[in-house]
Write a structure and sequence with these properties.
333 residues; alpha/beta; 14 strands
Length: 333
């Protein structure tokens, strides 16, 4: 099937349109005009986006009547802003930012969560070999409240480190691709990345200090977020989208499809070598939940840290942010 690709590194969200600038990574599938177009904001690029890519390529969204366009924002904040402005219908990866927005009155719902554990590896430049050497260093993250930012705080806490006490400078760099590049260029000293990104850096002498995937830290890293109004008015569209996502997850987790999944992931992430691709596939196998229910424990974990900077976040009832009724309907309870 012929596919039509457009890539985007920067997104300007306006009231009247979504303008895509500097094309680098969004698939625009050609589908029937009878289908409903849905624009989904991606706040990150990693291997765990693969179920969405697979759902596009294999027609899982199309057979449920949807033409899905994935728009890369690289940070959660512009994705959530686009959602609230009505320019995006859904956001993938914005569960943490949804908490902050909800504390300011935004009516949002987390309808699914592909990953509910912290899966990043903590990787540092050559010369840094243990956790105590992270004191006073530059730590690359994504936007405040986003997955990389929160993952950094939870990971450091797990290691007994504190950003303020240990004078660790959190530097907003962007998504994992940006942080990997910044680490290699020497612009930061340490960051959190998935295995698909750390493999090549390890070959160049960069050191993995910790593997947080082994610590079982509850973390809502890959949520699917919609506005409450859209969920109420367009529940059939949300349900159709979730059907496609679930089929994409099943396809990705089936061992027989490993080669096809790696091919898609390698193309989308521009993975340079087979070993990195294998690491990316393991990220999917260990990080994506077959039944992607949002984790209240993970959201409360994030809320606990976020309220230190934003007291209003502490007043939220996180269970009111979650609406997994459609997911439970599709999964049978």
């Amino acid at each position: 099937m012929q596919q039509n690709y457009t890539y985007c590194a920067k997104t300007y969200l306006r009231r009247s349109a979504v303008t895509l600038i500097i094309c680098l990574g969004v698939l625009l599938p050609s589908q029937s005009t009878a289908q409903t177009k849905v624009i989904v904001g991606l706040s990150t690029l990693n291997s765990r986006v693969s179920p969405l890519w697979i759902a596009q390529e294999r027609g899982f969204f199309a057979k449920n009547g949807l033409e899905v366009l994935l728009v890369l924002t690289r940070l959660s904040q512009p994705a959530i802003a686009g959602l609230l402005a009505g320019e995006l219908q859904m956001v993938y990866g914005g569960a943490n930012a949804a908490l902050a927005a909800a504390s300011n009155g935004a009516e949002l719902k987390v309808v699914a969560a592909m990953s509910n554990r912290l899966t990043y590896e903590l990787i540092a430049r050559p010369g840094i070999n243990k956790t105590e050497e992270l004191r006073g260093k530059r730590f690359g993250t994504g936007g405040i409240g986003g997955s990389l930012w929160m993952g950094a705080l939870l990971g450091l806490e797990n290691l007994g480190l504190d950003v303020t006490r240990d004078q660790i400078s959190l530097m907003i760099v962007g998504d994992q691709t940006n942080n990997a590049q910044a680490l290699e260029a020497g612009n930061i000293d340490v960051t959190t990345l998935d295995g698909v990104y750390t493999h090549r850096l390890k070959q160049k002498g960069f050191k993995v200090i910790a593997e947080f995937g082994k610590a079982n830290i509850p973390f809502p890293g890959q949520g699917i977020v919609v506005s409450r109004a859209f969920l109420q008015k367009q529940s059939m569209i949300v349900e159709a989208f979730l059907k496609g996502v679930l089929e994409g997850i099943q396809y990705c987790l089936a061992p027989a499809n490993k080669a096809a999944v790696i091919k898609t992931m390698t193309t989308r992430l521009r993975i340079p070598d087979a070993k990195s691709a294998e690491m990316g596939y393991q990220d999917i196998a260990t990080g994506v939940d077959a039944k992607p229910y949002p984790s209240l424990e993970g959201l409360r974990n994030v809320q606990r840290l976020m309220k230190q900077q934003n007291s209003k976040v502490g007043n939220l009832k996180v269970e009111e942010l979650v609406d997994d009724r459609l997911l439970r309907k599709l999964l049978g309870g």
